[in-house]
Amino acid sequence: MEVQVCNYNPSDDGEDTIFSFVSRHHFPIVGFNNDSGKEQVVGTCTLLKIDERIFLITAAHVMNERHNVRDNELWLWNYSDGSKITITEDIICNPNLDVPHFSDVAVVEIDIKTYPSFNKKEFHDFCFLNLNRMLKELDYPILEDDTFAYLIAGYSSSQNKIIKSRYKKPKIFQYLTHPLPNSENNSPLSILTLRGMWDSENVSERGKILPKPQGMSGGGMWIVSTKSEYSPIFAGVSVAYLREEKAVLAVKATYILSMIKCFFPDVSLSEDDLPIKFFMESEIDGSLLFLIPKQDD
């Protein structure tokens, strides 16, 4: 597939393309920067619907930005009407400043009744990510380059310099790019993450420069394939830009689903479908361990 870039406002009307489908499932996370005195995009998230429960999923380091913004408040910015809603629910993530890339994931079960603009059937149907669009496998298929690509989506901070009017609509950036192999074998990083190329020299439009990916952390990395009825399918959450490798790193979706099942055991997810098994080492300090099936070399 050809490498492509797309700037898109998900509230725009138009043909339902892969880009428009992916865009409507992503939301910016915003905070008030004390140093600059301005609101800024600190990350991106998606809202996953499992039965009637809604889970915000993003990167842990995005949610940990709450310690660096005014009043420790982060807001979910609804692109459809410009409203910003304070995220007040409990946050499940590693609270440390230096989170390992392979576990750099945060989950928040949101109370939809406190988000009035989200609490509509058409919004549920249109903007919440359904479980059948999440890739549950740990081993991702390796397909031919002409049938298989990654689509990286998120709200770049540099393209959303903000945000004083509630009616200003954010712009999502999307990059259809090539998969990259992991640099090591049988480590948590190689097993639990995937990589997509992030290289301005590999853009089909001459002179097009990719934006800095800050703000895109927590957005989705999707698999786009001409051989799947569920294309595009959500494959992981982007968590890091690896400058030397010209790559964006994402934690696989199955890790996120296993994490949800661990902390919300009554959720409608079958452990038989989830290859990673989480369990608490200590309920006192919240230490979390997980088991990964052994991978073939």
What would your notes on this structure say?
The protein is mainly beta. It has one domain: Thrombin, subunit H. The protein has 5 helices and 17 strands. An 8-stranded antiparallel β-sheet has the order 1-10-9-13-14-15-12-11. Strands 2, 3, 4, 5, 6, 7 and 8 form a 7-stranded mixed β-sheet that branches. A hairpin with a 7-residue loop joins strand 13 and strand 14. The chain is globular, with a radius of gyration of 18 Å. About 2% of the residues have low confidence.
Task: Write a brief caption for the model.
The protein is mostly beta strands and 297 residues long. The chain has 5 helices and 17 strands.
User: How confident overall, as mean pLDDT?
Assistant: 81
Strand runs, count? 17
CATH class category name:
Mainly Beta
Second rung of CATH, namely the architecture: Beta Barrel
Form type: globular
- Which structural category do the helix and sheet elements fall into? mainly beta
Report the uncertain regions. Answer: 282-286
Tell me the CATH topology: Thrombin, subunit H
- Give the radius of gyration: 18 Å
**Widest β-sheet, arrangement of strands:** 1-10-9-13-14-15-12-11
Instruction: Give the H and E element order.
Output: EHEEEHEEEHEEEEHEEEEHEE
The total number of structural domains is 1
Largest sheet: 8 strands, antiparallel
Helix content: 10-25%
Q: Report how far apart the termini are.
A: 28 Å
Counting DSSP H or I runs of 4 or more residues, the number of helices is 5
**Beta-strand share of residues:** 25-35%
